[in-house]
Design goal:
heterodimer, A: about 425 residues, alpha/beta, Rossmann fold, 2 domains, seven-stranded parallel beta sheet, six-stranded parallel beta sheet, 15 helices, about 40% helix, about 15% strand, globular, B: about 400 residues, 7-stranded beta/alpha barrel, four-stranded parallel beta sheet, three-stranded parallel beta sheet, 7 strands, catalytic activity (chain B), carbohydrate metabolism (chain B), Glyco_hydro_57_N (chain B), Glycoside hydrolase family 57 N-terminal domain-containing protein (chain B)
Chain lengths: ~425, ~400
């Protein structure tokens, strides 16, 4: 089965969990001998781990060779690449000679050689334009190959999936990693909503990363539950750093984007309550986002500056070091479609407290799940884990065992079932 | 077929309220009266009334009179009195008719009492007082259930006048020689297998996995009861599910068939002990039937052990304290049901769906309970210090240094 997969980011060039999930899914899917995978991102950097699948950057597609109707693209963001007319520094006499020589060659080789679309592959101000252009290129890629199924990850790639389906008639599976209701805390962007809704309506099957997300898809987008399949995410094992430094102070960690969706303000409320009863505790809010300044101000206002750290965005080994240092990990997300980070923390032998409004709470029993707004319950859990070593040890022991059974292979197995069903129906 | 002794266990705990760590030393009320009221009410309407209605109805029809042993804790009696006094009237009526015999148990459904002879004695005497007060009788047989009994505990049970002890298991505990324990009441080691089968059949009914019929169970009971009397314990409150039609049919068939069996019939616990003595030829009956020891649902994992250690500590502190309010809280809080809520089996979906637990996870059960015990500990400590200070003051007045 040839699967054309559209994604927006891919490790190591990621800014969130979407890329991590795409890596896990593709790695597990490529283990199936009968699945031939082509993965498309807006921008390929060349450093991606892409063994056993074809990896294409939409930015590499030549518009001229591909004969894509460029009028369909949003021009102001189109990058034109031609043979360079720039010259190294020359004196005026020499310059005149060179110009003359070049003008003599005019008509021979002065045509545009190639034309490509620039993509940042990020989430900037021109995102909607990039999404549109990506969909045009995606359609071309779909038509160029013999694919049996199209799989689009998250709203950014739904338009590409929809156009690819229209062009080829092949079944479309969209993978909902999050909805705008999760990201915006209910203040939905109408453009994003419509892109999501159109993608969901056009899809033959919808993969939701949790039942929590499935409910949102049904209730907020009016989609029939019959075509929605819940496939929980997996996690790649993360090892704690060996022989960590001993420390006197206990560490409570938040690790994620500092945005409304992730509920950072609740973490600070928890800190305030715990610190009223416990002294040797530090709180670390690792990550970056549009609420960072606001959170720093909140910590100042509560007079907790000396107990708080904001190390910024962490990646790679820094994340491992952070988990290793932690005594408790909290994910107080307001709405979290899944949440891979708590599973990574559990791999690193850290007891975790998660929001009930998260998909991950559907798959783990050895974490403490509380409502995101219930900072009393969250603080209670933090205090008890720090106070009672038996509680901490039992959560760590059971949690490590539990998370060891959660992997991407299980997710891939379920995805393949959906693929089979869709291709047989087609 | 021989006789059958069916014992019904009735215990309802006082539901604890959500008690946070920052309330310690600030709030000394631990109970969620509203939820407790609702639980007692629900139990009464959905389980208690249908079950005992069935017993009453069948007792007039069955060839052989239905008789039951009832172990009802002091906490349950108090809760019935407060929220559903009709339940006490029902039990009294059944007792007056000779259909039930009350068993001796610890007043608080306590586990820590088996760790301390003086506490156990207090608990048994208090329970006797309550049974006497409500029903005008005193239990003769102590229901040990799955508890391990030390020689000291057995002596205490004998000391407070109990003639016999019924305990699950197939043999005495290794560290306790019942036969040489002075004042030891008569021991009866009851087979747990049939009690488990009853519970299993009930669970099957609840999960609707099959059309569970009592016939198979009846066959097994008859096979077991060929030569010796059969003892079955059934926890009426454990499942917390309504006594619906299929459960009613199950019990109706079971009770009717057993009652109708020409040679069988029901016996009360005190009659049962007598029968067992006659059947084995001596007072120390040793059953030969198979049956593994019950899984320990109260004191197995580290959370339960940690909480239990705290209870042991608090017990010592309570002894040094004369405050009635504190003692009353202690009587409620030593209920082993709070340890049950922490057991690992609540991580299993099936078990969790079939058994009542006010907490969503054993971790949350532990956190809440430990917060409450911490507050009780501080209150006890304050009281003990106050007593010491008053003693010191008194001493200073009586024996001034100059």
């Amino acid at each position: 089965m040839r699967v054309l997969m559209f994604g927006w980011e891919f490790p190591p060039n990621i800014s969130g969990g979407l890329g991590t999930a795409c890596l896990g899914i593709t790695k597990a899917l490529t283990a199936y001998a009968d699945i031939d995978l082509t993965f498309v991102v807006p921008k390929a950097y060349g450093n991606e781990e892409t063994s056993r699948m074809e990896f294409i950057g939409a930015n590499e597609i030549d518009l001229i060779k591909s004969k894509i109707n460029q009028e369909r693209l949003c021009d102001p963001y189109t990058y034109i690449s031609v043979q360079s007319g720039m010259l190294p520094y020359v004196d005026p006499v020499k310059y005149a000679e060179v110009i003359q020589a070049k003008s003599n060659e005019a008509g021979k080789d002065n045509e545009v050689k190639s034309r490509k679309v620039t993509f940042t592959g990020k989430y900037g101000a021109d995102l909607l334009t990039e999404i549109h252009n990506y969909s045009i290129i995606g359609e071309y890629i779909a038509k160029s190959g013999e694919f049996d199924l199209i799989h689009a990850h998250d709203w950014l790639t739904y338009p590409a999936g929809v156009l690819a389906k229209k062009a080829t008639g092949k079944p479309l599976v969209i993978h909902v990693h999050a909805t705008d209701f999760d990201r915006s805390g209910g203040h939905v962007n109408p453009d994003v909503f419509w892109i999501e809704k159109q993608g969901m309506e056009a899809a033959d099957a919808i993969i939701s990363v949790s039942n929590h997300t499935k409910r949102i898809i049904v209730e907020k987008y009016g989609i029939s539950p019959e075509k929605i399949y819940t496939v929980h995410n997996g996690v790649e094992p993360v090892a704690a750093i060996a022989n960590p430094q001993k420390k006197e102070v206990k560490t409570v960690t938040f690790l994620g984007r500092i945005t409304l969706q992730k509920g950072p303000q609740y973490f600070i409320e928890v800190a305030r309550k715990v610190l009223q009863k416990m002294e040797s505790v530090e709180f670390v809010m690792a990550g970056s986002g549009d609420m960072t300044a606001q959170m720093v101000a909140m910590v100042n206002k509560y007079g907790l500056t000396d107990k708080f750290q904001f190390p910024g965005f962490l990646c790679g080994e820094q994340v491992q070091e952070m988990y290793t240092r932690s005594d408790v990990y909290i994910m107080p997300s307001v709405s979290e479609p899944f949440g891979i980070a708590p599973l990574e923390a559990m791999h690193c032998r850290v007891p975790v407290i998660i929001s009930k409004q998260s998909g991950v709470s559907e798959v783990v029993k050895h974490a403490i799940a509380v409502d995101f707004w219930d900072t009393d319950a969250m603080a209670d859990a933090v205090y008890s884990i720090l106070k009672y070593s038996k509680l901490k040890n039992m959560m760590v022991k059971n949690g490590t065992r539990e998370v060891g059974n959660i992997n991407w292979d299980q997710s891939a197995k379920q995805l393949v079932r959906v693929y089979d069903k869709m291709t047989k129906c087609a | 077929m021989n006789k059958v002794c069916l014992c019904i266990q009735l215990h309802l705990p006082a539901i604890l309220r959500q008690y946070r760590f920052f309330e310690v030393n600030k709030n000394d009320y631990y109970y969620d009266d509203c939820v407790t009221d609702s639980q007692v009410d629900q139990f009464y309407k959905d389980i208690f009334v249908p079950f005992f209605d069935l017993v009453t109805k069948l007792s007039t029809r069955a060839k052989s009179k239905i008789k039951l042993g009832i172990s009802v804790s002091g906490i349950t009696l108090k809760l019935f009195k407060k929220y559903r006094p009709e339940a006490l009237v029902t039990l009294d009526t059944l007792h007056q008719k000779g259909l039930i015999e009350f068993l001796s148990v610890s007043w608080s459904n306590s586990l820590v009492a088996f760790n301390d002879s003086s506490l156990l004695k207090e608990q048994l005497l208090l329970h006797d007082q309550f049974i006497q007060h409500f029903f005008g009788t005193t239990p003769k047989v102590f229901m040990a259930g799955r508890h391990t009994l030390s020689a000291q505990s057995l002596s205490v049970i004998g000391e407070v006048g109990k003639k016999a002890v019924v305990r699950f298991g197939t043999e005495p505990d290794k560290d306790c020689d019942y036969y040489t324990t002075p004042g030891c009441p008569e021991m009866w080691f009851a087979d747990q297998k049939l009690s488990r089968l009853v519970e299993k059949q009930e669970l099957a009914l609840l999960s609707e996995k099959n059309n569970s019929r009592p016939e198979k169970l009846l066959k097994q009971i008859r096979e077991h009861a060929q030569s010796t009397p059969v003892f079955i314990e059934y926890n009426l409150a454990q499942l917390g599910e309504p006594f619906l039609l299929n459960r009613s049919y199950f019990w109706q068939t079971l009770l009717t068939e057993l009652g109708a069996d020409s040679q069988a019939g029901f016996v009360l616990p005190s009659e049962f002990v007598g029968l067992s003595r006659n059947s084995s030829g001596n007072g120390n009956n040793e059953r030969r039937v198979s049956g593994k020891k019950g899984k320990n649902l109260w004191l197995k994992n580290d959370l339960q052990k940690e909480a239990f250690s705290k209870l042991v500590l608090l017990n010592e502190m309570v002894k040094a304290c004369d405050c009635e309010t504190l003692v009353r809280d202690w009587e409620y809080l030593q209920d082993k049901e709070y340890l049950f809520y922490m057991n690992d089996r609540f991580f299993e979906d099936e078990f969790a769906s079939q058994h009542f637990n006010p907490y969503q996870s054993p971790y949350l059960a532990f956190i809440n309970y430990m917060n409450i015990l911490s507050d009780l500990e501080n209150r006890l400590l304050n009281r003990i210090r106050k007593n010491e200070f008053e003693q010191h003051q008194l001493y200073s007045i009586n024996f001034p240094s100059n």
